């Protein structure tokens, strides 16, 4: 388990990370979301033991992270600003990581390089931004670490590769209990992968919640009626959102699923179905309830 206990980092008069207390359970996928400058990269670097806290502490499975080689051997950091040795090839980087990480899986590296269509003997500086990211991701998952810290890792990847990377992460989470912590300013990029999301704002964690918990008791329903409904038709519902286009309504409401559907069916819709809620919708609704306007913080 990763634990930040009042973790604080200052750069001169800027407090980039401000007394953060947070926990990341092993085997979960933690999304760290926040606008530009919120402190995501700094916090991620503290979790990975790259930056020392000025105040507070970061622990991994009860051990301090900073300057702890044994703990660092269990962590891989995929930086937003890609780091490769000058003039290096993927093969050089693989050999470097193989020396550092005891559990580096070389066979898997070969397999993934070929699956992603990357030439391991070509100079990385000649690769595109997305290809460089792919090399980092492949080295990251092949290092066999327990924790993977990803800073804007999906940014710049095309949709097919993004999905492939998400599948790789999901496979490692399921098969060997990997714990990825993924920082992004875009909630949509964390869709389908995170089970826990923390919202960072001005260096502090505003909100940290389990997605299944957030989804509980919140439903989105699309229904069509013979004619537009009167204004007071939805009065008996705990509505979070209502959209209307003629006689087509899309509502997001709190409540118990069967009770909600029974109430709508009593209104005699010609069509009615439950729709899945997007991560963005869940998050917006939930943070509104907690008193924050997430649209102002993220979009
Ligand atoms: N090395 C540094 N020296 C001085 N200030 C820094 C340094 N690194 C970060 N900061 C400041 O700390 C604050 C948080 O920066 P950080 O990079 O952690 O934010 P972020 O949430 O990752 O932003 P982005 O989404 O834009 O990458 C910002 O105000 C930034 O200017």
Q: Could you characterize what this model shows?
A:
- The chain is α/β, with parallel strands linked by helices and about 300 residues long.
- The chain folds into two domains: about 1-210, Rossmann fold (3-Layer(aba) Sandwich); about 215-299, Alpha-Beta Plaits.
- About 30% of the residues lie in helices and about 30% in strands.
- It has ten helices and 14 strands.
- The protein has helices spanning about 40-45, 70, 90-100, 105-115, 130-140, 160-175, 210-215, 255-265, 280-290, 295-299, and strands at about 1-10, 15-25, 30-35, 55-60, 65, 75-80, 145-150, 180-185, 195-200, 205-210, 220-225, 240-245, 250-255, 270-275.
- A six-stranded mixed sheet has the order 6-7-8-3-9-10, with helices on both faces. The chain has a four-stranded antiparallel sheet with strand order 2-1-4-5, with helices on one face.
- Helix 4 (about 105-115) runs antiparallel to helix 5 (about 130-140).
- The longest helix is centred in the middle third of the chain and has 18 residues, at about 160-175.
- The two termini are about 30 Å apart.
- About 35% of the residues are buried.
- It binds adenosine-5'-triphosphate.
- Adenosine-5'-triphosphate binds near residues 11, 14, 39 and 42.
- This is ABC transporter ATP-binding protein.
